[in-house]
Amino acid sequence: xxxxxxxxxxxxxxxxxxxxxxxxxxxxxxxxxxxxxxxxxxxxxxxxxxxxxxxxxxxxxxxxxxxxxxxxxxxxxxxxxxxxxxxxxxxxxxxxxxxxxxxxxxxxxxxxxxxxxxxxxxxxxxxxxxxxxxxxxxxxxxxxxxxxxxxxxxxxxxxxxxxxxxxxxxxxxxxxxxxxxxxxxxxxxxxxxxxxxxxxxxxxxxxxxxxxxxxxxxxxxxxx
Length: 224
What we know:
Layout: H1 2-28, H2 36-41, H3 43-66, H4 77-104, H5 116-142, H6 148-177, H7 182-223
Helix pairs in contact: 1-3, 1-7, 3-6, 3-7, 4-5, 4-6, 4-7, 6-7
């Protein structure tokens, strides 16, 4: 089972690496095709992909360790809550900033006007705040659940769909308006929504596969 987890993680890493950067360029339209190499040279690309792949691996192995057990899990609860809340915060922040650029475009909101440092601090603060809020929600409502991973993955899948329903129209708005930097924000939102949506399929597939193996095991025990 762990071998299948490694295979799914490797496949997810390949998909994110091959598709994420080109999608950003296709959504932006301003950069030439060869500029995708510059994206791979930027350390932030590898950091972002590394976080997504590490999250996929953790969710897969947590799903294998704690799913389909009758006893309540005594471990991994906090890890699952921290991990799931991080991705939920990423989706929430992407949706929020997609709405912001759809309304204001390249112009900063009145609160951030002529205060460039405040904008960066606010972005980080919003992400951390959502991380803490979602972490508390996941931990409170799912700490006694024997299939916490499956539940939070289902929530992340719904959240990624909702985030795409916000980021895609926002991207259409900023593209038609001819904004310069706003499409980068909405493009990142679209890539994030797609990446987390794909991330959610791995634990779901592995959990279904393990359930089928457990069913075969019970059947063979009855026959013997």
